[in-house]
Amino acid sequence: MLSVAVVGSGPSGVYTAQALLQQSLVPDVRVHVLDRLPTPYGLVRYGVAPDHEKIKSLQNSLRAVLEDERVTFVGNVGVGGPDGVSPARLAELYHAVVYCVGASADRALAVPGEGLPGSYSATRFVSWYSAHPDIGADPFARDALEARSAVVIGVGNVAVDVARILARGAGELRRTDVPRAALRALEESRVREVHIVGRRGPSQARFTTRELRELGALPGARVVVDPTELALDPAYAAPDGLPGALPLPAVVRRNLEVLRGWSVGGGAGAAGDMPGGAPGSADAVRRIRLRFFLRPVELLERGGRVAGVRFARTAPDEAGGVRDTGRYEDVEAQLVLRAVGYRGVELPGLPFDPVRGTVPHAAGRVLRGGVPSPGEYVAGWIKRGPTGVIGSNRSCAKETVASLLADAAALTRRTAADDPLAVLREWGLRPVEWAGWLSIERAEAELGRSLGRGPVKIPDWAGLLAAARDENG
Ligand SMILES: Cc1cc2nc3c(=O)[nH]c(=O)nc-3n(C[C@H](O)[C@H](O)[C@H](O)COP(=O)(O)OP(=O)(O)OC[C@H]3O[C@@H](n4cnc5c(N)ncnc54)[C@H](O)[C@@H]3O)c2cc1C
Ligand SMILES: NC(=O)c1ccc[n+]([C@@H]2O[C@H](COP(=O)([O-])OP(=O)(O)OC[C@H]3O[C@@H](n4cnc5c(N)ncnc54)[C@H](OP(=O)(O)O)[C@@H]3O)[C@@H](O)[C@H]2O)c1
């Protein structure tokens, strides 16, 4: 029998468990999926936007894996943290451990003013509206949404998510599982302008077309683009390809088509600020301005809070990047969200590459001093870095499991605990098992019913743990 611990119950952890169940090389496997949270699914629960119900429903297929009789969910057990279990001790309990801990930190802009009140990472904002229990009582509810104008820095899918949540009427969010405090704050939000700003051109934006189009379909909001800004991008001007250059990727072509459609009829500032082709209802109260070729250089301050962002105007260079033009533009904003990527966090006791923010590995085998460390593996964002959609983690996990299975003969000669959960309890940990999670689900459904809504997320540790312990509730 091969006994495996998977650390992290996000997509990469669950796909790792699934790949272990679906193989036939080692028929007798037992998989414990540990998570520091009492709740499973990682960013599918705490990242995927609440209004993306279809993607959220992927939880159902992840759930089927965690409910397999060969799999045990072990929530509320952190690995490598002060209150958790160290990688060295965990290795005593299982033949192999696969680390699937994601990339939970944010990247900084490293510009003056970044620490001003009113300036946050999108990571934090996402965690807030997703009810991540680490966020706790948060300033968003109190003051950030008093802003009239918000700047979102970055043009990836996370930038589009946070801009959409800011621009979407809270009425529509009522049907989602957004926690009460966040819903209230979004209901009271005075944000009317949301600027999404890229430092390069539209052909280099990282958002996908579906997500981009969705901005144009928001009731109560209008998208504004500036055709002269778009035209600065050589690929926009020549969508069929520049002489001697490779054809544009399909996603870029589609994005440019959408932007072109929106730009018809004038630029930002023209025609009453609403270019003719821009979508959105006539009575739109919010505007989403998509801006390009603006590199943030400083967050501006007034009265001790953020008041705007100073951007350097850039222009395309010959190498696919941009150069500064020596010109600047200030954009007013009382709320600034930087959506410039996530970052892996070092897990004490595991090797870490601080530049890439990942664990060094060879085909999923953790490398210590450049050599594979027996019984230690890695998958998902902590292996590849913070890019890729949910499905990308499936092939990533498969590669790791193939390496693990190739090592299986040696691994099963190592010792493993008969009952790792009993040992974890002896060590003072208080695992939340599947029944505890189901109990949290019931409590969230009950909370929602009492509010006349569907399930509503419990946003704090105490509430989650109380619900988990109330297994008969
Ligand atoms: C805001 C946001 C929205 C997204 N929306 C979409 C979308 O709509 N569609 C899509 O396809 N992709 C989306 N993605 C991408 C997708 O979420 C990721 O590809 C995927 O979640 C990465 O999976 P992972 O398992 O590596 O990490 P995660 O999902 O982050 O899972 C890591 C898990 O490890 C646990 N963990 C961390 N540290 C420890 C520890 N020390 N001990 C124990 N457990 C630990 C965490 O609690 C977490 O449950 C989104 C990403 C973000 C950031
Ligand atoms: N609906 C979905 O499917 C969905 C939703 C959310 C997230 N995701 C996925 O999750 C992954 C992470 O998304 P993400 O948006 O965090 O990352 P991302 O796709 O890497 O986008 C990051 C953005 O930040 C910009 N940026 C980085 N550093 C900057 C700086 N110093 N100043 C200004 N801009 C800067 C980047 O611009 P440059 O290109 O110029 O570096 C880029 O536009 C992606 O694979 C994404 O597709 C998917």
TrEMBL record:
<feature type="domain" description="FAD/NAD(P)-binding">
    <location>
        <begin position="3"/>
        <end position="193"/>
    </location>
</feature>
<dbReference type="InterPro" id="IPR021163">
    <property type="entry name" value="Ferredox_Rdtase_adrenod"/>
</dbReference>
<protein>
    <recommendedName>
        <fullName>ferredoxin--NADP(+) reductase</fullName>
        <ecNumber>1.18.1.2</ecNumber>
    </recommendedName>
</protein>
<keyword id="KW-0274">FAD</keyword>
<dbReference type="Pfam" id="PF07992">
    <property type="entry name" value="Pyr_redox_2"/>
</dbReference>
<dbReference type="InterPro" id="IPR055275">
    <property type="entry name" value="Ferredox_Rdtase"/>
</dbReference>
<dbReference type="InterPro" id="IPR036188">
    <property type="entry name" value="FAD/NAD-bd_sf"/>
</dbReference>
<dbReference type="InterPro" id="IPR023753">
    <property type="entry name" value="FAD/NAD-binding_dom"/>
</dbReference>
<keyword id="KW-0560">Oxidoreductase</keyword>
<keyword id="KW-0521">NADP</keyword>
<keyword id="KW-0285">Flavoprotein</keyword>
<comment type="similarity">
    <text>Belongs to the ferredoxin--NADP reductase type 1 family.</text>
</comment>
